[in-house]
Amino acid sequence: MTIRLYDTSARQIRDFAPLQPGCVSIYLCGATVQAAPHIGHIRSGLNFDIMRRWFEYRGYDVTFVRNVTDIDDKIIAKAAEQGRPWWSIGYENERAFNDGYTALGCLPPTYEPRATGHVTEMVEMMRTLIERGHAYESDGSVYFDVRSWPQYLELSRQELDDLRQPDEGVSGKRDPRDFALWKATKAGEPDWETPWGRGRPGWHLECSAMAHKYLGSAFDIHGGGLDLIFPHHENEIAQAKAYGDDFAAYWVHNAWVTMSGEKMSKSLGNSVLVSEMVKAWRPIVLRYYLGTPHYRSTIEYSEEALREAESAFARIEGFVQRVVEKAGAVEPSAEVPPAFAEAMDDDLGVPQALAVIHTTVRQGNSALAADDKEAAVARLAEVRAMLGVLGLDPLDTRWAGEGDRGEDLHGVVDSLVRLVLDQREAARGRKDWATADAIRDQLKQSGLSIEDGPQGPRWTLGPR
User: How many CA within 13 A on the CB side of residue 344?
Assistant: First the structure.
């Protein structure tokens, strides 16, 4: 068994070899909490949640760090705009992100450090970089000297002489492409004391400092969205390696969620907030929609695509429910089918793994139709094992009570539907097929799916 991952730095899929046998260390760039999350933000956390689950299934002990950027230019601007403390903005949105992760079934990280809690570590890193000639102080700010590090841009593979970064009106840089490790204090902004004066962290330094603290000088996987490759991850590599760390052995990046071909973002005004989406769609369906495409594939958002995901998951869930009704509780298999494992080992090939799930569901439905209870139970055990790896098992306690859009009304609705179904059965008994079909069609228009079986008709809430 060898897990293989696409490494952005190598531009190819590589066999995964952990630095420490049996252990995996992952650092994921998490939320910048200037606003509530849209589904594009949560996709990244969900993709790496699936990665973590697969490593754990394969027997690894996983340390998963996902940071929170709770101070930056955007948060300060939002605070000024709303007339609120910067920390109030950050804390409110940090909670919104965590609510989003939880709603979509993401496991909590091993550690979730905030940038503002690690100023001491950042100061220590800057001190060492200055001593080694890789950083310098200017008017209370500290900048990384990109020309001091010949390997700069090794991740994005750009040429320094072709690189043109705006200097944001800063005149103290030796080179306009040098980036800020620390920003000198400005009136009305939060600040912390350092040997070079009061100020606040630059965006890039925080991640190198926190990765070093929680994962050491070398760790296995650094993750994040494609948009972070440059400048954020490029700058992380430069400052961390110049400091003396080996840093990440693999770089894994997830693709975006787009709308009308554009990356979903707050600045474009095309974001779809998670807090609103979970009101309109079942969270487990949202997880299916965001988690089942390959993590390196772009998802083009549309309600039609969401409805297709809802229908696809309903077919899986319907099979699960039918077997449970027939055979009672069925525990997941201890192992997933070999074809599923092969797909997941190959760069987390969730689409191929999902195909195995749907094939197994079809086999299970055939067994149900043939009244082969033993085979149906065996297929459900396999399906539950596979869904569990993806965080999509509808029988998992994590999803208990989330799925039926009104649990308290279920008994009432069932009684009413049974009355209508009795009328339909009476029509069928007298061979009045037109009336029976009309009743079925009316129920379908109301959002109910009717299935006729050996034990009589059963109803489920169908896709919208």
Answer: 27
CA distances (Å), 298 to each of 278, 399, 403, in order? 21, 27, 27
Q: Taking CA 289 as the corner, what is the angle to CA 287 and CA 290, rounded to the nearest 5 degrees?
A: 65
Q: Where are the beta strands (DSSP E) in 56-140?
A: 61-69, 135-138
* Predicted TM-score (pTM) above 0.90: no
CA-CA-CA-CA dihedral for 257, 259, 264, 267, to nearest 10: 180
Instruction: State the Cα–Cα distance between residues 188 and 3, nearest whole angstrom.
Output: 50
Other C-beta atoms within 10 Å of 370: how many? 10
User: What residue type is assigned to position 286 of the chain?
Assistant: L
Coil vs helix vs strand at 373:
helix
CB distance 335 to 382 below 8 Å: no
pLDDT tens figures, 88-104: 999 999 999 999 999 99
The predicted pLDDT at position 437 comes to 85
Strand partners, 61: 23
pLDDT at 405: 47
For residue 87 the two structure tokens come to 């920390």
Q: What is the β-pairing status of strands 199-201 and 179-184?
A: antiparallel
What's the farthest any 2 CA atoms get from each other in the chain? Answer: 93
* Spatial separation of the C-alpha atoms in residues 443 and 449, rounded to whole Å: 7
CA angle 462, 463, 464 (to 5 degrees): 115
Length in residues, the chain: 464
8 A C-beta contact, residue 105 and residue 284: yes
Q: How far apart are CA 44 and CA 41, in angstroms?
A: 6
